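pinging the channel bc i need a second pair of eyes. not urgent but kinda urgent?? the chain im working w is below, pasted from the shared doc
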Amino acid sequence: MEPIDDFDIKIIQELEKDGRMAYSAIATTLKISNTMVHQRINRLIEHGIITGIKPIINEKKLGYDWGAFTGLTLNKDQDSDRIIEELKQIPEITECYYITGSFTLYVKINAKNHEHMRRILYEKIDNIPGIAKTDSIIELGCAFKRNVSL
Protein backbone atom coordinates (compact mmCIF):
# COMPACT_ATOMS: atom_id res chain seq x y z
CA MET A 1 0.00 0.00 0.00
CA GLU A 2 1.18 3.50 -0.74
CA PRO A 3 1.77 5.59 2.37
CA ILE A 4 -1.18 7.45 3.82
CA ASP A 5 -1.33 11.12 2.97
CA ASP A 6 -2.75 14.24 4.62
CA PHE A 7 -6.27 13.53 3.33
CA ASP A 8 -6.20 10.00 4.82
CA ILE A 9 -5.04 11.42 8.14
CA LYS A 10 -7.73 14.12 8.14
CA ILE A 11 -10.42 11.55 7.29
CA ILE A 12 -9.26 9.31 10.16
CA GLN A 13 -9.23 12.29 12.53
CA GLU A 14 -12.82 13.15 11.57
CA LEU A 15 -13.92 9.54 12.14
CA GLU A 16 -12.22 9.57 15.56
CA LYS A 17 -14.38 12.53 16.55
CA ASP A 18 -17.55 10.66 15.55
CA GLY A 19 -17.43 7.27 13.86
CA ARG A 20 -21.07 7.71 12.78
CA MET A 21 -20.31 10.89 10.85
CA ALA A 22 -21.74 10.78 7.34
CA TYR A 23 -19.16 10.57 4.59
CA SER A 24 -20.80 13.59 2.99
CA ALA A 25 -20.18 15.61 6.18
CA ILE A 26 -16.52 14.60 6.15
CA ALA A 27 -16.31 15.60 2.48
CA THR A 28 -17.85 19.00 3.25
CA THR A 29 -15.54 19.60 6.21
CA LEU A 30 -12.43 18.67 4.24
CA LYS A 31 -13.64 20.32 1.01
CA ILE A 32 -13.21 17.13 -1.02
CA SER A 33 -15.69 14.98 -2.94
CA ASN A 34 -17.94 12.45 -1.28
CA THR A 35 -16.57 9.83 -3.72
CA MET A 36 -13.02 10.56 -2.59
CA VAL A 37 -14.01 10.02 1.06
CA HIS A 38 -15.68 6.68 0.18
CA GLN A 39 -12.67 5.53 -1.84
CA ARG A 40 -10.18 6.56 0.82
CA ILE A 41 -12.07 4.90 3.68
CA ASN A 42 -12.55 1.70 1.64
CA ARG A 43 -8.81 1.65 0.85
CA LEU A 44 -7.89 2.23 4.50
CA ILE A 45 -10.18 -0.65 5.50
CA GLU A 46 -8.85 -2.96 2.75
CA HIS A 47 -5.29 -2.35 3.93
CA GLY A 48 -6.15 -2.90 7.60
CA ILE A 49 -5.36 0.65 8.75
CA ILE A 50 -8.98 1.08 9.82
CA THR A 51 -10.18 -2.22 11.25
CA GLY A 52 -13.74 -1.20 11.94
CA ILE A 53 -15.97 1.61 13.02
CA LYS A 54 -17.76 0.62 16.20
CA PRO A 55 -18.95 2.12 19.47
CA ILE A 56 -16.63 2.51 22.42
CA ILE A 57 -18.44 0.87 25.32
CA ASN A 58 -18.06 2.00 28.92
CA GLU A 59 -18.09 -1.41 30.65
CA LYS A 60 -18.67 0.14 34.08
CA LYS A 61 -21.98 1.68 32.90
CA LEU A 62 -23.09 -1.85 31.96
CA GLY A 63 -22.32 -3.22 35.43
CA TYR A 64 -18.81 -4.56 34.78
CA ASP A 65 -17.20 -2.94 37.83
CA TRP A 66 -14.13 -5.17 37.98
CA GLY A 67 -11.30 -5.23 35.49
CA ALA A 68 -8.07 -7.20 35.54
CA PHE A 69 -4.95 -7.57 33.48
CA THR A 70 -3.90 -11.19 33.66
CA GLY A 71 -0.62 -12.72 32.57
CA LEU A 72 -0.83 -16.31 31.34
CA THR A 73 2.06 -18.74 31.63
CA LEU A 74 1.70 -21.62 29.20
CA ASN A 75 3.11 -25.12 29.55
CA LYS A 76 4.26 -24.89 25.92
CA ASP A 77 4.35 -21.62 24.00
CA GLN A 78 3.62 -23.49 20.77
CA ASP A 79 0.10 -24.17 22.15
CA SER A 80 -0.67 -20.44 22.07
CA ASP A 81 -2.83 -20.55 18.90
CA ARG A 82 -5.13 -23.21 20.37
CA ILE A 83 -5.27 -21.46 23.74
CA ILE A 84 -6.08 -18.11 22.10
CA GLU A 85 -9.00 -19.74 20.27
CA GLU A 86 -10.33 -20.99 23.61
CA LEU A 87 -9.81 -17.56 25.22
CA LYS A 88 -11.89 -16.02 22.40
CA GLN A 89 -14.83 -18.11 23.64
CA ILE A 90 -14.83 -16.25 26.98
CA PRO A 91 -16.81 -13.05 26.34
CA GLU A 92 -15.43 -11.26 29.40
CA ILE A 93 -11.92 -11.34 27.86
CA THR A 94 -11.83 -8.25 25.67
CA GLU A 95 -8.13 -8.08 24.72
CA CYS A 96 -5.30 -10.57 24.30
CA TYR A 97 -1.65 -9.77 23.60
CA TYR A 98 1.52 -11.73 22.89
CA ILE A 99 4.18 -10.39 25.24
CA THR A 100 7.78 -10.97 26.25
CA GLY A 101 8.99 -11.63 29.76
CA SER A 102 7.47 -13.87 32.41
CA PHE A 103 4.25 -14.57 30.50
CA THR A 104 3.35 -15.70 27.01
CA LEU A 105 -0.02 -13.94 26.81
CA TYR A 106 -1.62 -11.00 28.59
CA VAL A 107 -5.40 -10.60 28.66
CA LYS A 108 -7.84 -7.92 29.77
CA ILE A 109 -10.83 -9.27 31.70
CA ASN A 110 -14.04 -7.41 32.60
CA ALA A 111 -16.28 -8.78 35.36
CA LYS A 112 -19.37 -7.61 37.21
CA ASN A 113 -17.97 -8.24 40.69
CA HIS A 114 -15.28 -10.16 42.55
CA GLU A 115 -17.25 -13.44 42.45
CA HIS A 116 -17.71 -13.12 38.69
CA MET A 117 -13.95 -12.47 38.33
CA ARG A 118 -13.18 -15.55 40.45
CA ARG A 119 -15.42 -17.72 38.23
CA ILE A 120 -13.77 -16.41 35.06
CA LEU A 121 -10.29 -17.10 36.41
CA TYR A 122 -10.91 -20.41 38.19
CA GLU A 123 -13.71 -22.00 36.19
CA LYS A 124 -12.98 -20.74 32.67
CA ILE A 125 -9.33 -19.75 32.20
CA ASP A 126 -7.78 -22.29 34.59
CA ASN A 127 -9.71 -25.09 32.85
CA ILE A 128 -8.05 -24.44 29.50
CA PRO A 129 -5.49 -27.23 28.96
CA GLY A 130 -1.98 -25.85 28.56
CA ILE A 131 -2.27 -22.86 30.89
CA ALA A 132 0.21 -23.41 33.69
CA LYS A 133 -0.62 -20.37 35.81
CA THR A 134 -2.21 -16.94 35.85
CA ASP A 135 -1.16 -13.74 37.58
CA SER A 136 -3.70 -10.92 37.78
CA ILE A 137 -3.53 -7.23 38.52
CA ILE A 138 -6.86 -5.57 39.33
CA GLU A 139 -7.44 -2.30 37.49
CA LEU A 140 -8.96 0.60 39.41
CA GLY A 141 -10.09 2.64 36.41
CA CYS A 142 -8.79 3.84 33.08
CA ALA A 143 -7.02 7.21 33.24
CA PHE A 144 -7.19 7.47 29.43
CA LYS A 145 -7.31 5.37 26.31
CA ARG A 146 -6.64 6.65 22.81
CA ASN A 147 -5.41 5.82 19.36
CA VAL A 148 -1.89 6.71 18.28
CA SER A 149 -1.50 10.31 17.25
CA LEU A 150 -1.52 10.99 13.51
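so Strands lie at 66-74, 93-98, 105-111, 131-139. and The chain has a mean pLDDT of 93. — does that match what u expected or am i reading it wrong
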